[in-house]
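Internal ticket #5521
Category: modeling
Description: The requester needs a full-assembly model to guide mutagenesis choices. All entity lines are attached below as received. Residue total reported by intake: 860.
Assigned to: D.W.
Attached entities:
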Amino acid sequence: MTVFLLILISSLAVYGFILNKSKASVMSDTNIMHSQPHYHGLYSAFITLVPAILLLFFWSFIVNMITNITLKDFFSDITDTGLIKFYTDGVIGYAEGATDKIINHAGFMPAVEHYQALQHNNKILQFIVISTLSLMLFRYSLKFVEVEFKARDYIERVIVIVMRASAVFAIFVTIGIVLSLLLETLRFFDSVNVFDFLFGLHWSPQMAIRADQVGSSGSFGAVPVFTGTLLIAFIAMTVATPIGMFSAIYLSQYASENIRSYAKPIIEILAGIPTVVYGFFAVITVAPFFRDMGAFFSFTNMSSESALIAGSVLGIMIIPFVASLTDDALTAVPRSLKEGSLAMGATLSETTKKVIIPASFHGIVGSFLLAVSRAIGETMIVVMAAGFAANLTFNPFDSVSTVTVQIVGLLTGDQEFNSPKTLSAFALAFVLFFITLVLNVISLTIVKKYREEYE
Amino acid sequence: MNNISARNKSEKRFQMYGKTAVLIAIGFLVILLFNIFSTGISAFKQTYIAVNLEIPADFDKKNINPRTELNKHFLKMFPEATTRTERRALLSLLSKGARYEFSELINQNKERSIQGYHWFLASADLDMYIKGTVKRQGDTAGRIDENQMFFIDKLLSKNLIELQANKYLLSSADSREPEMAGIRGAIIGSLYSILIAFLVSFPIAVMAAVYLEKIASKNKFSDLIETNINNLAAVPSIVFGLLGLAIFLNFFELPRSAPLVGGLTLALMTLPTIVIASRAAIKSVPPSIEEAAIGLGASKVQTIFGFTLPLAMPGILTGTIIGIAQAIGETAPLLMIGMVAFVVDVPGSPLDASTALPVQIYLWADSPERAFTERTSAAIMVLLGFLILLNLTAIYLRKKLEKKW
């Protein structure tokens, strides 16, 4: 029925387009019109189609709400909201023929009948109302084809509104992120103290299923998770910073144009490789390599999921970020500074160390912060190469856990949405979001300010 | 500072540091790719065993159990297998997939007789031994015991074991049996997700970019949108996964594990990338062309759709392809919305439960079964192949369509 309705109003819109366009083009033979014929056509199609579609959308939304509320009345003797939801879903599934499972409850069959009657009446009413509306608007739109009528202005106004809505959509995404994280985080803090979460030293989110189990409360002190994240990010930056910066310096100052045009894209391939591939690489190659190295130096108490493995592979992934951002910063330094220094007799390395790097220091710091934010937010490498057990340690040979690993561990698999265990993932994600946002804002501000200095 | 030779030495050293850094970075890439390719290439071949079949044309082919029938023929080749352990050892060399291949063979030859040697899929343990992944130690190799090894040597001496092209890898979905597992389901799931991500994010992103570049006046509000988009681009991908979980699954109650939800989540993630690239492309269109259009009486919207967008399209498309390439490799947000299930069917629509290619790689990499390792590498090779294809398209588009002004 709904499909038929959609076809009906769409064909009406197409008909309106053709009618108005041809009428306008006949008119334009003898007059100078404000708008070209196809704008008149579009105007009719728009008027016929859009209000009807919008009404249809809201209609189904409201009807769904009404159905849900009225269906719940049949199960008013049940208190568990999750169970009511399960029953009402069962009613809808049965009534639409998706399943033939009958739930053993006195309210079930009456609810099914109620639902079917509601849907039947609703469909007929919906069809009549919306097709009438569309038809009336169609008739109405046909009157507008006149020499002076500003069809184009109306159409363009609509286009601009759509464009503005698209731009504003980005803000809604941010609001969505903040709200969805914040609401669940606040619910988490209903059961766990904020300070216990931020400053507690013990993290074991496993909640007991039965009350008499040992360790039934679960503890949510996130400090070990934060230190683990910092440790891995630190190792990653130790790998990425020297390699990334020196390659940027070499490629921007020393390398010939030819070498640069090959080496730069090759290094950037590292950034294009999916992180899950790095994770696999860490497990299959780097971990055995470190184990062999450990055995060679008769260093045996090395964990197979050590911070060192995850951190160094993460570092490899970060190299191109550091390299290309540093490169941008270095090449933004005005030539006059460099050439002035060279003309005074300084070697290229002295110029680089004493003139170019100090002059681009802000940019380099900005790139460093962006890379740190990448390292903190990266998920797959650490999920595959670091452990789930959150140890409070700064020993790189131990296994540590990170914020992202915990989020994945807490939210994959079966989950109930009200336990602090699940909600703690949102609290961690909120912290992650907040920290990366701050790092990002700082680095963007630094880079922007510095860029203006030389413009 | 006055010692020239020391200064020259320090210059040389500095330059060498730079060279070494570049070489190390390139070295990592080479090691990574070499590792993936050297472990993955063997997964494109698979071990088969030849079984001598003698099924007459008038044999009742409708009411047979393919498993017992195939086993009967396989055992007939080795009268020396007498004890129960020996027979079981022999039969364990065939994969579970062999019986499906057998019933397919029967179906193709309903009226005819089936004579002679036919190839059937071997088990993953044998496969790894033949490929040399598992080394022989005396009469055992990995999980292969002495009994199995006895028959393997017999089969090898008669040339009845052979490596053939792997039919399953690209044509079937996931399976508990490594030798029958494939990535078709994951590829289709990825394609659905990417298609939806593109259809949702491309129009919104281009419209937003046009608005910010051409229509919005510079004020607090447009600044806010701009900062917002720049910051969204740096939000960790897993946060988008949580957004998808909270909005699409919990609020809108869309089906879990569906490529539809995956696509919508990836769309939100790629949106900022495409907006930023589109803005740069729109900015690079020379104002003289737009001014000429306006001077001839075109309205602002007509100028945008008639001149600005068509001229900026190569840049916009390049940016979009790069965003899509990122989205194809993205795993973390898909884990959050439940696309990690074990799915044995190829999804028929974006609403069916499915995995995606990177998630499949994650699942296989996590599997304790050793035979999955080479298949993981092979799946990575396919994924990298897609990415190379996309990036080459982007480069081609840029070369072909880019105009110098």
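Resolution: model delivered.
Comment from assignee: Chain B touches chain A through 87 residues (CB under 8 Å).
Ticket closed.
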